[in-house]
Amino acid sequence: MKINRREFLLLTAGLAAGGKALAEGATVAAGAGKVVNIGLPGKFPADGVYKDFRDRGIFVVRQGGKLLALSAICTHRKCKLTAQADRSFYCPCHGSTFDADGHVTHGPAKKDLPSLTMLPNEQGELLVTLPGS
Ligand code: FES
């Protein structure tokens, strides 16, 4: 289940009001998914793939001035992907590969990596919503 911007703002405002602001790196459940605070956009200054949040299932990609969050979980059977030097992604479990935009370039995976919703909070930190489990 996805949350819309209004629900998102209410959630983050509620957390802040409760004295439990979502600190960088923290995760909180939101509906069917979880929200991860990946920090300020300045943490990702140059084009490339940032692996800081791979263990949380997120690759942050800066490309041509745009910042996006891609799932770091293989769409075949949910293994964690590794980022390659050429900005592609490799699955060590069965060998699937994905290009820098998350498109499948080699199976057995058939589905592209999903782009994850990323919205700023009041402090300008980016909050990424993981798919529900
Ligand atoms: S889990 Fe990634 S290729 Fe099978």
Biggest pleated-sheet summary? 7 strands, antiparallel
User: What is the number of strand segments?
Assistant: 11
Poorly predicted sequence stretches spanning 5 or more consecutive residues: 6-19
CATH superfamily: Rieske [2Fe-2S] iron-sulphur domain
Radius of gyration: 15 Å
* Number of continuous helical runs: 1
CATH architecture: 3-layer Sandwich
Mean pLDDT figure: 84
* Helix content, binned percent: under 10%
The fraction of residues in strands falls at 25-35%
Principal-axis shape: globular
Features:
globular; mainly beta; about 130 residues; Rieske Iron-sulfur Protein; 1 helix; binds FE2/S2 (inorganic) cluster; seven-stranded antiparallel sheet
Short description:
This protein is mainly beta. It contains 1 helix and 11 strands; from the N terminus they run H-E-E-E-E-E-E-E-E-E-E-E.
Provide an overview of this structure.
With 133 residues, the chain is mainly β. The protein has one domain: Rieske Iron-sulfur Protein (3-layer Sandwich). The chain has 1 helix and 11 strands. Strands 1-2-11-10-5-4-3 form a 7-stranded antiparallel beta sheet, with helices on one face. It is globular and about 40 Å long. The site of FE2/S2 (inorganic) cluster has 11 residues, from loops.
